[in-house]
Amino acid sequence: MTGRTKMGWATLGLALLTAQTACATQNVAPTGDMAVGPALSVESFLQAANARDLDRMARLFGTADGPVANTGSTFGCMWKRMGSWIGVSNRCMTRQDVEVWMNTIALILQHRDYRLGADQRVPGRQHLTASIPVALVTADGRQVSGVPFTVVQSKNGQWLIEQIALEQVTNSRQRSRPRR
């Protein structure tokens, strides 16, 4: 083998090694952020709910694609609306839709006190996701424990509330009413 051929094989080997490394699965083990970021988002969301700060709630609630407060541009929503007609996308939410949605959540989550449990990573998700159980003392004094808040890290690194088991809070209201 000549020096030039050896250099070619070495370059090819380095390129293959680089490609293999680039294709490797990302390690999503919890970091220091996992302990702090999701919990801060849940606390901020609960405080915003009590204050009925619907804009702040909408900036803290969303998916890996971003907060629900980002309702999209007129041009982008036009394409989404057309896609919704054939079932390939969902229509854009209007600012009014988001406000009504956040108001409903705020009314359900009104509380005197809360306590966050330990977060746990949600396995099998494309984006880093945690579940945080929350114990609430509701505005009317009911104690509701273990309400799971699912928190996802968005593409820009922000932790957003993706899902809340609101039925646990509303069902506790049903159970606490005296039967007639």
CATH topology: Nuclear Transport Factor 2, Chain: A
What string gives the helices and strands in order?
HHHEEHHEEEEEH
- Would you tell me the structural class of the helices and strands? alpha+beta
Low-confidence stretches: 16-33
Question: What's the number of extended β-strand segments?
Answer: 7
Q: What count of structural domains? A: 1
User: How far from one another are the termini?
Assistant: 94 Å
Overall shape: globular
Q: What share of the residues does DSSP label as strand, in percent? A: 15-25%
Task: Give the helix tally.
Answer: 6
Output mean pLDDT: 80
Could you give a short account of the major beta sheet? 5 strands, antiparallel
Radius of gyration over all CA atoms, rounded: 23 Å
Q: Helix coverage percent of residues?
A: 40-55%
CATH class: Alpha Beta
Just name the CATH architecture. Roll
Protein described:
About 10% of the residues have low confidence. α2 packs across α5 and α3 crosses α5. Strands 3, 4, 5, 6 and 7 form a five-stranded antiparallel beta sheet that branches. Strands 1-2 form a two-stranded antiparallel sheet. The protein is built from six helices and seven strands. The termini are far apart. It has a single domain, classed as Roll (Nuclear Transport Factor 2, Chain: A). The radius of gyration is 23 Å and the shape is globular.
Task: Give a brief outline of the structure.
The protein has 180 residues and is an alpha+beta fold.
Task: Annotate the secondary structure layout.
Layout: H1 3-23, H2 32-51, H3 54-60, E1 62-63, E2 66-67, H4 74-85, H5 95-109, E3 111-116, E4 120-121, E5 129-138, E6 143-153, E7 159-164, H6 166-176
Antiparallel strand pairs: 1-2, 3-5, 4-5, 5-6, 6-7
Helix pairs in contact: 2-3, 2-5, 3-5
